[in-house]
Each structure stands twice: as C-alpha cells, then as structure tokens.
Amino acid sequence: SNKKKIRRGRGKYGNYGRSCGYGQKGAKTRGRRYINPGYEGGRAPLHIVTPKLLPEHKAMMKVDPYTWISLKDLNMCEDGEEVDYQDLFMRGIPV
Fold this sequence. Notes:
Layout: H1 46-49, H2 55-61, H3 71-74, H4 85-90
C-alpha cells in the first residue's frame, strides 16, 4: 500500500514535531544519522578498554589435541591388552 510520507518538524507537540522523533540530545539528533558502532557517547569504547590477549591466554583457549576416553569404555577391553584409537573405533566404542 502507499504509505503517507512523514513530514517532520511540523508543529510543536505532534509525534514528529519539534525534535522530529530523533530524541532530545546527543549525536543521533544533531544532523548526522549514522554513528560508528563502537561509539559510546564520549566514553572510552569497550574494544579499546579491554586488554589484548597475551600468548599464554590464547594457548589456554586452544582445543585439546587429545581425545578423552572414559574408564567405562576401557573396561570393555581385556586386561593387559594394548589398544589404540583404531582398535577402539573398530570395536564400536564411541571415541
């Protein structure tokens, strides 16, 4: 359907009068309609305040290269038998 165009700034008390529906103060009301996503109104932005990750912290977040095998699964094998990943996989043990 054809919507009616909003005429901003007409009148003092209407929905789009006076401040034209853009609020009272701040960067969003003063001419520009786009603000940098990281901008926090003069406060130091979060991506600048938070510290960079050190190499130790990055290493902590890496995925463990080993696969955990529960004792319940190992008890399905016979005593003293050496098993590796392929043996467990062939027996149908969820690894």
